[in-house]
């Protein structure tokens, strides 16, 4: 809370009638599934990790006796030197991760569209090194953040980008404070502000740095950050660099948030009990590992009640949510001015790179002056900026076509259809019914590699994730839907997932009824302004 400085961005509280309407809308729209891990599966998962660790120690012992020939990297034990890595971290990497390293960092040969070519590789030493065979594997891509399908080598966006290369080159070689501000940057920022519905915006060349380098410009010592427990590492890094005190609240739990916020207002700063200079709530629109969507109306109501500030990271929601593709603010029909700091990236829905911050003109002018990203980093190059503008104009319908609305409707339908079918097959699926990120729980560590390899054998490429990126008993496969996926492609992927899920015994769900569908009347009404694709008709 600002002392003697009102939150100029919160333009008054909404009436009780509006709050009741939004709360009713929240309950109606916000179906999320987070089934508990079955007890037997949890025990087997812990037992599996125990066996893997036991065999890992045995292999280390065989390496010490030079019986095990697979190499290992060990940090030198220098007396008086502090180790750079924890011993268990190195142990886990060489004995668990490296042996299934073929499931990650697979080289691709073209743009990450609905389908792509993977370079085939083999490892003669259990993931220590890889050799390319010279062959390619054609696979359906369900692991890239290509939400609206703009990752494509041809079309209007590619043509405009090529023209920008010929006109402005491929590099800037200066920051925004010196020689790095071009006309294309100013035009992009104006378009972004219009798209978000805010007064002003600023763009940066790197999405991660948009968070990590700008949060320290907004808060500092004497401020409090209330951060969702599952926020992205860029938000965590930016919060730590700021010097502000950080408290976390349970994921998407508005009751816990309000309790911690109320206590912070009452108690003030530690030791001195002086009022906080600022209290900043940091949340994401879509959480990329859980597939959940932030309860934005409730959080806005809480932040207004206690006069805190709200920082919203829309990296995975901008373009991918809402009937107009304007992100989670559009999804919940909230007022953009109720969000003090609107952040997002251009790497997902726009097929480009970089990030942005939107808000009041006063806020953006301050960030433009104080941000380390604006002061020291190279400006966004012209082709990247042009790709963003071209795709954003299509989403907004400024190109004179309905292509943007068609893609938004296709993605929304794909999300509901894909999730519903997986639930009906008996898989445990996490997240919101409208989220384009769909986590499928695998649990046992051996099934992480098995699921990835079996799917790839059947020409389906997806992402698998395990500990420490997830809790130890919640390993998962993560599917990312795209507007470039047709119903035929999704049905083919579902058949593969069903086959592999049966093979690996992954159908643990006890959900008897799926309480949502792509045929829901309210869902159809919400997207009735979109062109009728074949999928929507079905």
Explain what you see.
The protein is of the alpha/beta class and 538 residues long. Helix content is 41%, strand content 14%. The strands form 4 sheets. It has a 7-stranded mixed β-sheet, sandwiched between helices. It has a 3-stranded mixed β-sheet with strand order 2-3-13. A hairpin with an 8-residue loop joins strand 2 (115-122) and strand 3. The radius of gyration is 24 Å and the shape is globular. 42% of the residues are buried. The model is unreliable at 1-20 and 530-538 (pLDDT under 50).
Rg for CA atoms? 24 Å
- Tell me roughly what share of residues is in helical segments: 40-55%
Low-confidence stretches: 1-20, 530-538
Mean pLDDT: 89
List how many beta strands DSSP finds: 15
Please write out the topology:
Layout: H1 16-29, E1 32-33, H2 39-64, H3 87-97, E2 115-122, E3 131-141, H4 156-168, H5 183-196, E4 200-204, H6 207-212, H7 215-218, E5 224-228, H8 233-242, E6 245-249, H9 254-267, E7 279-284, H10 296-305, E8 309-313, H11 328-331, E9 341-345, E10 355-359, H12 361-370, H13 372-376, H14 382-396, H15 403-425, E11 431-432, E12 437-443, H16 445-457, E13 460-461, E14 463-465, E15 475-480, H17 487-504, H18 521-526, H19 534-537
Helix pairs in contact: 2-3, 4-14, 5-14, 14-15, 15-17, 16-17
Quick overview:
The chain has 538 residues and is an alpha/beta fold.
Structure keywords:
disordered N terminus, 14% strand, alpha/beta, 15 strands, 19 helices
